[in-house]
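ARCHIVE CARD
CATEGORY: sequence design from structure
SOURCE FIELD: tokenized fold
FIELD CONTENT:
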């Protein structure tokens, strides 16, 4: 028997989404109405997750139109209503959102066969809720006056994570505390990326997978462009540099699709793309030229909630102890290589990957991937069940004191702090004398600056693993490899 296409897609695209699927199934199985909020960045697979799990139960579905005004959103609503309920095709275009929700409740009541819980799916809600459109007022009416009495699942989905949090999850009006289940859909980690590509019959070794991940991250919509038989370099060259490559100009559409006045968001991204260590707030102000005050705070919050940047507390500094880093792999890769070579065409990356700038970038990109896989690092160190706090450490050098930069510290509640050093290297890494001296110096600076009484233990995490030497004994306590980042905690 031929397997339906949508089932094949569900098995592949939903790789690694077990917890999210379980949450959606529990909402469907409960004995009361549920409002499920799903947030996650553009292209991460939110819509397909909902459609795949709830496919047979969706009674009505609408997705907001980007850049559309209220009247166009209502026309779209009217068209979707006619498709879902053909016997009500003569209904006029609603004059406002409250009128539209009146029509929807009447259509749902008229078609209720009592055979099971139904799903009403509102996708890209931030686009539906245009300025002064009062969509959220209509949604509040729909939920409070109708849905709670009908035992349905209402799914509200949006790519603008910060907007969803401010306007829906933290709403003080009619939607206050109405969301019963929340899903934040993150990009795939390395293990999920490996499983996803295998399900699509793309078999790469882990070195190749790491190179691919460093360039485009764990975004399913990007990864589905990879073809069987390609090396990572071939796939990156075709997808990012060829004239019709999906990611050749994705950057231009990415931020305007998520944020109003996205120019400031892009300024922050461009500034962070130029530093390997990240910036504190003052440095970010100076380098991004974004206005200080509440506006910068909002921009940083929106970029953080949407997963493009991450914040790391600086160990030992309670007040001005926060650094921002760009953690979206595609944005980093785009600004470093795609944009400067926009007219290079196919074959550009094959040449770029041989120069020193690319090799230097690999070290930074690998470090960024490591920072995003802390649970896997903890599992490899056998401290998965131990409470830890992740942070970074930075102290500038002066005439009176030594400087140090440690990008990842795991402060454990058993009296140990793991200091993580990352290396992207061909073959097993054997630390040389210069590296060992630098690690000892950094440990000494950290100890003196923080007066910590905890044991400071170095961990060397190399892409191809590392080898203990006579000189490294007593300096490095643990060697981890790239394979450890593929663990499932």
């Amino acid at each position: 028997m031929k397997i339906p296409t949508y089932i094949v897609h569900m098995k592949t695209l939903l790789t690694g989404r077990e917890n999210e699927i379980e949450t959606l199934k529990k909402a469907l199985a409960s004995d009361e109405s549920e409002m499920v909020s799903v947030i996650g960045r553009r292209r991460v697979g939110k819509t397909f997750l909902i459609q795949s799990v709830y496919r047979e139960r969706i009674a009505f579905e609408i997705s907001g139109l980007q850049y559309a005004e209220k009247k166009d959103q209502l026309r779209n609503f009217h068209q979707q209503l006619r498709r879902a309920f053909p016997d009500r095709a003569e209904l006029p275009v609603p004059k406002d959102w409250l009128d539209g929700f009146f029509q929807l409740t009447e259509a749902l009541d008229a078609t209720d066969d009592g055979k099971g819980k139904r799903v009403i799916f509102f996708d890209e809600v931030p686009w539906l809720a245009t300025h002064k459109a009062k969509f959220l007022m209509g949604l509040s009416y729909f939920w409070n006056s109708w849905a709670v009495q009908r035992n349905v699942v209402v799914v509200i989905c949006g790519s603008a994570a910060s907007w969803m949090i401010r306007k829906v999850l933290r709403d003080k009006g009619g939607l206050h505390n109405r969301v019963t289940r929340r899903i934040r859909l993150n990009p795939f980690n390395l293990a999920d990326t490996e499983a996803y590509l295998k399900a699509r019959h793309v078999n790469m070794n882990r070195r190749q997978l790491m190179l691919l991940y460093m360039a485009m991250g764990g975004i399913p919509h990007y990864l589905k462009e990879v073809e069987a038989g390609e090396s990572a370099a071939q796939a990156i060259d075709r997808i990012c540099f060829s004239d019709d490559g999906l990611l050749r100009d994705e950057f231009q559409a990415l931020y305007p699709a998520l944020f109003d006045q996205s120019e400031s968001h892009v300024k922050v991204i461009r500034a962070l793309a130029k530093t390997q260590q990240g910036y504190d707030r003052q440095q970010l102000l100076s380098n991004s030229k974004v206005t200080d005050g509440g506006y910068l705070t909002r921009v940083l919050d929106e970029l953080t909630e949407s997963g493009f940047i991450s914040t790391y507390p600086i160990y030992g500094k309670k007040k001005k102890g926060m650094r921002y880093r760009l953690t979206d792999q595609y944005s980093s890769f785009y600004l470093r290589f795609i944009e400067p070579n926009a007219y290079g065409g196919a074959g550009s990356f094959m040449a770029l990957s041989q120069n020193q700038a690319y090799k230097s970038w690999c070290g930074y990109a690998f470090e960024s991937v490591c920072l995003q896989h802390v649970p896997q690092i903890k599992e490899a160190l056998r401290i998965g069940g131990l409470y830890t706090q992740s942070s970074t450490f930075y102290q500038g050098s002066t005439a009176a004191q030594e400087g140090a930069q440690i990008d990842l510290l795991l402060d454990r509640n058993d009296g140990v702090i793991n200091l993580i050093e990352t290396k992207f290297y061909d073959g097993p890494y054997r630390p040389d004398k210069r590296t060992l001296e630098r690690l000892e110096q950094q440990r000494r600076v950290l100890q003196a600056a923080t007066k910590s009484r905890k044991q400071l233990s170095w961990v060397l995490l190399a892409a191809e693993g590392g080898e203990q030497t006579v000189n490294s004994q007593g300096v490095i306590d643990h060697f981890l490899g790239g394979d450890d980042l593929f663990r499932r905690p």
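CARD ANNOTATION: Residues 1-12 have pLDDT under 50 and may be disordered. DSSP finds 21 helices and twelve strands in the chain.
SHELF: design records, drawer C
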